[in-house]
Design brief:
The structure is a single chain. The chain is built from eleven helices and five strands. It has helices at about 15-20, 20-35, 60-65, 75-85, 105-110, 120-135, 160-175, 185-200, 205-215, 225-230, 235-240; strands spanning about 40-45, 45-50, 55-60, 90-95, 100. By secondary structure, the protein is mainly alpha-helical. Helix 2 (about 20-35) crosses helix 4 (about 75-85), helix 7 (about 160-175) packs across helix 8 (about 185-200) and helix 7 (about 160-175) runs parallel beside helix 9 (about 205-215). The termini are far apart. The protein has two domains: about 10-135, Arc Repressor Mutant, subunit A (Orthogonal Bundle), CATH 1.10.10; about 145-263, no CATH class.
């Protein structure tokens, strides 16, 4: 492969970059560099195949190798799923290979339309399209007016502490009611983020209350979501103070221990 790609500085301010791990950032740039600039045709076992600009056929193993030392196939698998949620790419897989398509590749990687060949109007139009591509998808919106100065709705992968706490709370609820309907974990994770980031609670305090409310005969039927937990947090803490705190298993893999929850 030869040539170059455009990497816009605006990417530094976008959630797809800010919320990515170092491994995911390496994978993102690698995918851009692996994509075909021009239409490519080839023949294999007598059958013709064609890839459009922005597309390429590859494998998880090949992406991991090209992404560099420290990037595993599981890192690649998680990154691709995450980038799909951001509408950055589409992914069609077979038993051996997969077809990756960078969404709207031609908008910000078109080689034939360099800035010095464009009018100022066209350049501005293209830049706006780039910004829109990097920011717009159905999972990234502004929070409600109450939290608009301090928060934004994000996409959380399964390694996020907010997402893990959402799953943990659901598991506690299911212990009491196995038929409880599965929630939208993205919405739950965002509510938990607000508790921690905006209300300045610790993850350990949140986890403690999640377990405690599902062990309390009254609260187990009244606090069935992080939003309700947030709304009643202070009153629940007052109830906890009147009772002997119990030990909670941390989400992390560390040995179970007694936390100072700060209540």
């Amino acid at each position: 492969m030869q040539g170059w790609i455009k990497l816009h500085r605006e990417l530094l301010n976008k959630p797809i970059w800010l919320e990515s791990t170092p491994e995911q950032k390496s994978i993102l740039v690698t995918l851009l560099m692996m994509a075909n600039h021009k239409e490519k045709e080839w023949e294999w076992k007598g059958q013709k195949f064609k890839a459009e600009p922005g597309q390429f056929v590859t494998s998880l193993e090949k992406i991991a190798f090209k992404s560099g030392k420290g990037v595993s196939m599981q890192n690649v698998r998680t990154a691709i799923k995450r980038f799909e949620r951001y509408n950055f790419l589409t992914n069609k897989s077979t038993n051996k290979n997969r077809l990756i398509t960078i969404v709207n590749w031609e908008i910000y990687q078109d080689v034939e339309n360099e800035p010095n060949k464009q009018s100022n109007k066209q350049l501005t139009s293209n830049q706006q399209a780039v910004n829109k591509q990097l920011t717009t998808n159905k999972n990234v919106k502004n929070d409600n007016k109450k939290d608009k100065n301090n928060s934004r709705k994000q996409v959380y992968d399964d390694t996020s502490i907010y997402y893990q706490l959402a799953v943990y709370f659901f598991d506690q609820i299911k212990n009491n009611n196995p038929e409880h309907k599965q929630p939208n974990f993205q919405t739950w994770a965002d509510d938990i983020r607000k508790i921690i980031e905006l209300d300045k609670r610790t993850a350990e305090q949140v986890q403690y209350l999640m377990r405690w409310v599902q062990q309390d005969e009254f609260e187990m039927v009244n606090v069935l979501s992080p939003s309700k937990l947030r709304k009643r947090f202070d009153s629940l803490v007052m109830k906890v103070k009147r009772e002997q705190p119990s030990k909670v298993t941390p989400i992390t893999k560390h040995k179970e221990k007694q936390y100072n929850y700060g209540f």
